[in-house]
Amino acid sequence: MKAFALSVLLVSSMSFAHDEGHGPKVIESAKRGGVLASVVNTKTKKMAYKAELVRTGELARVYVYDNELKSVDLAALGKTAKGQLESKRKKSAKQSFELKLAKGVFEGNLPKAKSKPFDVEVVFNGKGGAYQAVFENLD
Predict the structure, then answer these.
(1) Overall number of domains in the chain
(2) pLDDT for position 23
(3) DSSP letter string, 8-52
(4) Were 87 and a residue from 31, 75, 93, 138 both cysteine, which residue would form a disulfide, CB within 3.0 to 4.6 Å?
(5) Domain limits for position 10
(6) Is a pLDDT exceeding 70 seen at residue 106?
(7) What percent of the chain has pLDDT over 90?
(8) What digits encode the pLDDT tens for the residues 27-49?
(9) Are 105 and 122 in contact (CB under 8 A)?
(10) What is the DSSP string of 38-98?
C-alpha cells in the first residue's frame, strides 16, 4: 500500500513539474482552428497570454490573446519573434525560423519537420521582457 501511495505522489508531482515548465495547460478551444498554448514570461514563469498556432502548408501564424481569448495589443511583444521546431524522435533536429508581426498576427514559414510528432517554441522579445509559448506534440 505504501508503494502505491508513493507512486501516486511521484506521478502527480511529475505532471505538476511539467505543467510549470511551459505554463498551465490551456483547455479552451482555439478560435481559428489551430492549437492553443500558454505564453509564459520567461523571468517570472507566470502565464501572461495565450497563443494560437495556425498552420497552412508551411505558413505559420501565431495569434496572441489575453486570458479570456480576446485580442491584445502586440506592440509590447516586439515586431519579430523567434521560432524553433524540434522533432521529438530526433532530438538533435532543431530548426530555427522567424515570425514577423503583420496586421495583428505573427507570420513566418515553418520548416519541414524531420519526424513527427514535433514541438514548436516561439519566443517574443518585447518591452515587457521575453515571453515563450510551446506548442507540443504536433503532427
Answers:
(1) 1
(2) 74
(3) HHHHHHHHHHHHHHS-SPP-SPPSSSSEEEEEEETTT--EEEEEE
(4) 93
(5) 2-138
(6) yes
(7) 65
(8) 889 999 999 999 999 999 999 99
(9) no
(10) EEEETTT--EEEEEEEEEETTEEEEEEE-TTS-B--GGGG-SEEEEEEEESS-TT-EEEEE
